[in-house]
């Protein structure tokens, strides 16, 4: 999860988030090189009086500064499209969880089980135990198995919400009357926190998301105890 004064992204927990981090670094390096080149040229223009009379009429220069940006855009677009298709691809999910947004809490339904559903409310600050996080803890965590592809079906029953867990690279809008889906795969166990990322009313900041990723055998025992 995030920590105070953090400047970068949270540590990646899913393969998709790792790809997003790599793409971010790739694009940031291109932006850094372009910015450095532009700054260098501006500084030269301001500090030297040397001029070249035929520069404004050079066909070679115009050809270069037309083709080079196109090549740079291709270098950004190709990996971006690859990640978009990876995020949209769902291959034979092992588990499906339906998430419904409400004002102002989340409800979850494990559709592969006959009667496994619950609501998830934020724990008030006055009820927090030592070590628990303010505005992030919930009374019912979403327990999921790690290292398995999981399909999240996300919708809303009232207004627009957004189900987001940054360390997993997830952010999907919850829209009334529409069912959106996202893929979730965790490479390691742990607690992963998120929040509603769409302004949905006065208590928008009080509907956190907590995912508890555990090994499969612990998930099976948990699901048996919940039914």
Automatic annotation (TrEMBL):
Cofactor binding, note field: Binds a copper A center.
Alphabetized InterPro entries for the sequence: CcO_II, CcO_II-like_C, CcO_II_C, Copper_CuA, Cupredoxin, Cyt_c_oxidase_su2, Cyt_c_oxidase_su2_TM_dom, Cyt_c_oxidase_su2_TM_sf
Transmembrane portions of the chain: 27-46, 66-85
Pfam families linked: COX2, COX2_TM
GO CC terms in record: mitochondrial inner membrane
Cofactor(s), by name: Cu cation
PANTHER family: CYTOCHROME C OXIDASE SUBUNIT 2, CYTOCHROME C OXIDASE, SUBUNIT II
Assembly behavior: Component of the cytochrome c oxidase (complex IV, CIV), a multisubunit enzyme composed of 14 subunits. The complex is composed of a catalytic core of 3 subunits MT-CO1, MT-CO2 and MT-CO3, encoded in the mitochondrial DNA, and 11 supernumerary subunits COX4I, COX5A, COX5B, COX6A, COX6B, COX6C, COX7A, COX7B, COX7C, COX8 and NDUFA4, which are encoded in the nuclear genome.
Sequence similarity: Belongs to the cytochrome c oxidase subunit 2 family.
Protein name in the entry: Cytochrome c oxidase subunit 2
